[in-house]
Each structure stands twice: as C-alpha cells, then as structure tokens.
C-alpha cells in the first residue's frame, strides 16, 4: 500500500536490533511512529502495547524513558530483559492500556510526554498454537491475550445463537454470520467445539472455499471472536480517553490500527477532541469546548511499499496521531463511537 508518509522512504536500518522477541515480531511503521511521537532525552513515553518491545527499544535508543504496558503475562520475560539492559529508563507493567493513567499515577507520574498504541495481537501470540488465535494451527479455542476471563470456547459453546450472529456479523463484518452461527449451534448441540481447527473447518464447510478466495473463510469469524473475547474496541476507546487524561500539553498520541473497526474509533475520537463542539450527539450542547487535541493532518499515514513487501502485517496498518493541547480532559463518552464498542451478551454464559 502506498502511503502519504512524512518520511516517504522506508529506512530498513530502523529495524536493526528491533526485529526480535521470541518469534521475531517486526514492528509496524516504526519510522512513522518515531517521527510522529518524537521521543527524546528526558521525555517519558507510554508504550501501551509492549509486545516484543520493538517500539519500546527504538524509543529508548532515542534517549527517552519508557513506561511499557502489556496485558499478556507472556510479555513479561521480554520486559525483564529490557529492565536488565535499560535499568531505570524502563518500567514494565502487566495491565490494560485502558487503565494507563491509573498505572502511570501509581508509578508516580502525573503526566507523560507521549503515548503509543499498536493495536491487535503480536506475531508471538498468533504463532503459538496453544494461545488459540490461529485457524492455521491446531490449538485450544482460547484467544485471551490476558489469559483470564471468558475464552473463545466459552463464547462459541455458551453464547445464545443470536448473540453469536451479532458478534460474528458486527465484529467480523461477516456477511454470512447467520449461517456460521447456525452451523456452530448445530455442531455444539452434539459436542462442544474446543479446538481452533475444528471451528475453522466447520466455517469452511459451511461457507465453502473458492480457489480465488484471498482469505480463509474462517478469518472473519476468528477476528470477531478475538475482538469480543478481549473487548478490544472498548479497550481502544478507553485507551484514547486515558491517554487524553495523562498526556501533558504538547504531548503526542500515536495509534496504529489494522482494520476499519479500529481505525474508525481513532478517527472519530480525534474528530471530536480536535473540535469545539464535542460531547455526545444525544445531549444538548451547553457551551463551546476548547479542543483537547490538534492534528497536523487529518488523514492516516500508511506503510510505504517497501515496508509492505517486507512485512505483510504492515499492508493494512493505518497510523493516526495528534498533539495534546492545554485544555482539560473531557468526560468519557462511548456514544462517540458505534454500538460495536460495547457489544455484550444478552445473557450469562
Ligand atoms: C501488535 S502487538 C505490539 C507489538 C509492539 N509494538 C512491538 O513492536 O513489539 C500488541 C500487543 O499489545 C498487547 N495488548 C493488546 N491489547 C492490549 C490492552 N488493552 N492493554 C495492554 N496490552 C494490550 C498484546 O498482548 C500484544 O502483546
């Protein structure tokens, strides 16, 4: 995908020493992240999605301090290695970026200079069959980044059929969600569905697969379950609100997303927070608000051709960023976004 980048040429040297982590996660749009986030000595940056530490390492190498967060306990071992190398310039916290302001305050910081979020799963999570994210490797139907709470198997075997249709239709943008959900219900009535390949095969048998299909027929169903199980859209929305509360004036918020549901949330958030109107569309506007962010460009940056060739994950990436003003943080308002952000089950599992 050709992007309108600040730095049009992809500089592969930026990856030196950062392609790493247990399964070789390549950080996406790292050049653009660095040029928009502007890490420098004496700045404190929150990396809300530490993963294999690709962004954190590059930010630390620019001389900034990093407070890293990841909800996945497996990220801790990489975090420990960073602690050994970067000492007091680096901190690692297991937690959710939707709580980043609370985490920062508990660590003694009232404000920070920058926040970066790289939304979604890491290559390590996908590559490890036991985590249950992949429809190409057999593993338990799990998909929990944080390794607690409802698993994908709980949802597939316990949710009401109508809820499954909504989840797969809305979060997977699957046109045939009803057919997939009916097939799931018919199968689970005989025996619970517990393995990733079992579900992938069931979806493929239900929807069929043409030679010309670009993606596996189970892609959308797996995406939907992953987003639902990890409350990813709600986390993203709360992460943006939390960043607004913790960023100092002139601080920078940089967000990389990988599909339209996520990008729309970031776009709507910035449109609201950069404007004077603000607030819920459902409430009367009482007074003009001061914008709490400003954008130097409204459209997203995309990965350049060279990076997209090197890293397939980069092909769908979009980066949006904005600069915090000195206006006070506004109230949390999930009505800025579509109903998909707070999609929930109609009953208990
Ligand atoms: C795409 S990877 C980040 C890769 C990282 N930028 C790098 O260069 O290595 C996303 C990471 O964010 C974590 N994550 C996803 N949602 C999260 C959330 N709400 N709070 C904290 N961590 C989250 C995942 O566990 C995963 O490790």
Write the layout of secondary structure elements.
Blueprint: H1 30-37, E1 44-47, H2 54-61, E2 65-70, H3 76-86, E3 90-94, H4 100-106, E4 112-118, H5 123-127, H6 152-158, H7 161-171, H8 177-190, H9 196-207, H10 219-229, H11 232-246, E5 247-257, H12 260-273, E6 293-294, E7 301-302, H13 305-310, E8 318-324
Parallel strand pairs: 1-2, 1-4, 2-3, 4-5
Antiparallel strand pairs: 5-8, 6-8, 7-8
Helix pairs in contact: 4-11, 7-8, 7-10, 8-9, 11-12
Main sheet overview: 8 strands, mixed
SSE-based structural type: alpha/beta
Assign a percent range to the helix content. Answer: 25-40%
Distance between the termini: 42 Å
* Contiguous runs where pLDDT drops below 50 for at least 5 residues: 1-23
Going by CATH, what is the homologous superfamily of the largest domain? Vaccinia Virus protein VP39
Bound molecules: S-adenosylmethionine
Alpha carbon gyration radius: 20 Å
Number of domains: 2
CATH class division of the largest domain: Alpha Beta
From the 3D structure, determine the CATH topology of the largest domain. Rossmann fold
Task: Please give the count of helices.
Answer: 13
Q: Give the ordered list of helices and strands.
A: HEHEHEHEHHHHHHHEHEEHE
What's the mean pLDDT score?
91
**Count the strands?**
8
CATH-derived architecture of the largest domain? 3-Layer(aba) Sandwich
Strand content: 5-15%
Globally, the shape reads globular
């Amino acid at each position: 995908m050709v992007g309108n980048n600040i730095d049009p040429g992809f500089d592969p040297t930026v990856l030196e020493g950062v392609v790493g982590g247990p399964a070789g996660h390549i950080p996406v749009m790292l050049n653009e992240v660095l040029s928009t986030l502007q890490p420098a000595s004496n700045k404190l940056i929150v990396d809300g999605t530490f993963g294999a530490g690709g962004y954190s390492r590059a930010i630390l190498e620019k001389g900034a301090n990093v407070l890293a967060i990841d909800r996945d306990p497996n990220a801790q071992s990489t975090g420990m290695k960073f602690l050994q190398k970067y000492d007091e310039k680096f901190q690692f916290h297991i937690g959710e970026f939707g709580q980043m302001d609370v985490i920062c305050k508990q660590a003694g910081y009232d404000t920070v200079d920058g926040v970066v979020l790289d939304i979604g799963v890491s290559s390590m999570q996908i590559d490890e069959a036991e985590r249950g994210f992949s429809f190409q490797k057999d593993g338990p139907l799990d998909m929990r980044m944080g390794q607690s709470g409802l698993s994908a198997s709980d949802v597939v075997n316990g949710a009401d059929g109508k809820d499954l249709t909504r989840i797969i239709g809305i979060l997977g943008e699957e046109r045939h969600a009803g057919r997939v959900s009916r097939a799931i219900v018919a199968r689970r009535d005989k025996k619970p569905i517990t393995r990733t390949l079992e579900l992938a095969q069931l979806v493929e048998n239900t929807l069929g697969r043409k030679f010309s299909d670009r993606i596996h027929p189970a892609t959308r169903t797996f995406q939907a379950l992953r987003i639902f199980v990890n409350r990813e859209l709600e986390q993203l929305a709360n992460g943006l609100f939390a960043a607004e509360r913790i960023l100092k004036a002139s601080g920078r918020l940089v967000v990389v997303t990988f599909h339209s549901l996520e990008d729309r949330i970031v776009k709507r958030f910035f449109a609201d927070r950069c404007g004077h109107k603000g607030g819920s569309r459902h409430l009367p506007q009482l007074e003009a608000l001061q914008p709490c962010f400003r954008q130097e460009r409204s459209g997203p940056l995309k990965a350049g051709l060279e990076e997209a060739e090197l890293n397939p994950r980069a092909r769908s990436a979009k980066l949006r960023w904005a600069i915090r003003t000195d206006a006070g943080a506004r109230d949390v308002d999930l009505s800025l976004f579509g109903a998909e952000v707070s999609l929930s089950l109609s009953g208990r599992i």
